[in-house]
Write a structure and sequence with these properties.
This protein is of the alpha/beta class and 335 residues long. The chain has 2 domains: 20-126, no CATH class; 148-334, Rossmann fold, CATH 3.40.50. It is built from 12 helices and 11 strands. The protein has helices at residues 38-56, 72-77, 79-85, 128-139, 147-152, 176-186, 201-209, 243-256, 282-285, 287-291, 297-306, 313-334, and strands spanning 20-21, 26-30, 64-68, 91-92, 100-101, 105-107, 159-163, 189-193, 213-217, 233-238, 260-265. The strands form 3 sheets. The chain has a 5-stranded parallel β-sheet, with helices on both faces. The chain has a 4-stranded parallel β-sheet with strand order 4-3-2-6, covered by helices on one side. A two-stranded parallel ribbon has the order 1-5. Helix 1 (38-56) links the parallel strand 2 and strand 3 (64-68). It is found in: Golgi apparatus membrane. InterPro entries: Glyco_transf_61_cat, Glycosyltransferase_61. Keywords: Glycoprotein, Glycosyltransferase, Transferase.
Length: 335
């Protein structure tokens, strides 16, 4: 919360005279906090923004987004989404000193929990599937800009996106090349995709929206599963100690979006932690008991940052075969 600007609401005395008049309401919120992490950009920002808009405003009602901590890179990265939410120019609270007057204002955003939309709490019963349609309106306009996607769409082999991680971030697939080869032998066309902070979201959307399956280790990049078409396959590789967070962050949302959600939970021997800790320790044999009720920074560092995975290729092959069957059905049905 230290990254969130605090606003003070007053009823008197009167403020300065209006310098800019708006004949529509304002929606005021912060783009601070954990913004910059792709998961939190959506979980803490974009999805709550979608929920709030559908909670407060009627369909086609106009409004102005008034944003605190709207850094230039953030506005550029999410420009397509922000412009789809509202056609009016954004007002940046941190560098606009004018006195703006609105017909009314809503302060703050509503969240329904981790990566979720509860239709019972919205007037028109919107769901994550409706949010997915919103993403398609925002990014679908760019379809003609990716010729490779158009060409690849003519193939009949299911296209699998293998989400990649590298460097010292943890949860890297150490035998990624072998995994790619196995997937190709099974029948997939495989694209290794490692998004960066500079990857345009319309390009990421084009790659993933045109695929039939996505596989990756639990991490922020799996937020791209929101770009998958309903009916496609989403397999989350779950490292040791990531079971509950994997379910909350991506398992529930995958099912809610109508994806063929699959989970591959690694065994102790597939974790790089066995090279550093006793494989008979509680930390590896029973991570849930070891963590207790506290997800501390120290525990998070062990299971998220220290841990890489080396998949059991024989075991993982069976999961890929199952994923291929599901993806092939999707190809035959949706193309």
């Amino acid at each position: 919360m230290s990254g969130i600007r605090e606003l003070t609401l007053t009823s008197s005395p009167p403020g300065p005279s209006c310098e800019v008049h708006h004949n529509v309401p304002a929606l005021v919120f912060a783009a601070g906090g954990y913004t910059g992490n792709f998961f939190h950009d959506f979980n803490d920002g974009i999805i709550p923004l979608f929920i709030t808009i559908h909670s407060v405003f009627s369909e086609n009602q106009e409004f102005v987004l008034v944003i605190s901590k709207a850094r230039d890179w953030w506005v550029r990265k999410y420009a397509d989404l922000l412009q789809t939410f509202s056609k009016h120019p954004i007002i940046n609270l941190d560098n606009d000193s004018s006195a703006h007057c609105f017909t009314s204002a809503t302060i703050g955003l509503v969240s329904h929990g981790f990566m979720t939309i509860n239709p019972k709490l919205l007037p028109n019963s919107q769901t994550l599937t409706h949010f997915r349609s919103f993403l398609d309106r925002a990014y679908g306009r760019h379809r003609g800009e990716n010729h490779a996607t158009t060409v690849n769409s003519l193939k009949r082999r299911p296209r699998l996106v293998l989400m990649s991680r590298s460097g010292g971030v943890g949860r890297v697939i150490l035998n990624q090349i072998q995994v790619k080869r196995i997937a190709e032998k099974i029948g997939f066309d495989v694209t290794i995709f490692e998004p960066t902070a500079n990857t345009p979201l319309w390009q990421a959307y084009a790659v993933i929206n045109s695929s039939h399956a996505m596989v990756g280790v639990h991490g922020a990049a799996l937020t791209h599963s929101l770009f998958l078409r309903p009916g496609s396959v989403f397999m989350q590789v779950v490292p040791l100690g990531n079971e509950w967070v994997a379910e909350y962050c991506f398992g529930n949302s995958g099912r809610a979006m109508g994806l063929e959600y699959m989970e591959y939970r690694i065994e102790v021997e597939e974790s790089s932690l066995v090279d550093k800790y006793d494989k008979n320790s509680l930390m590896l044999k029973d991570p849930i008991a070891f963590q207790g009720k506290k997800w501390s920074n120290d525990i998070m560092s062990i299971y998220l940052k220290e841990q890489n995975v080396r998949l059991d290729l024989a075991r993982f092959r069976e999961y890929l075969k199952n994923a291929y069957k599901k993806a092939k059905k999707f190809v035959d049905k949706e193309g």
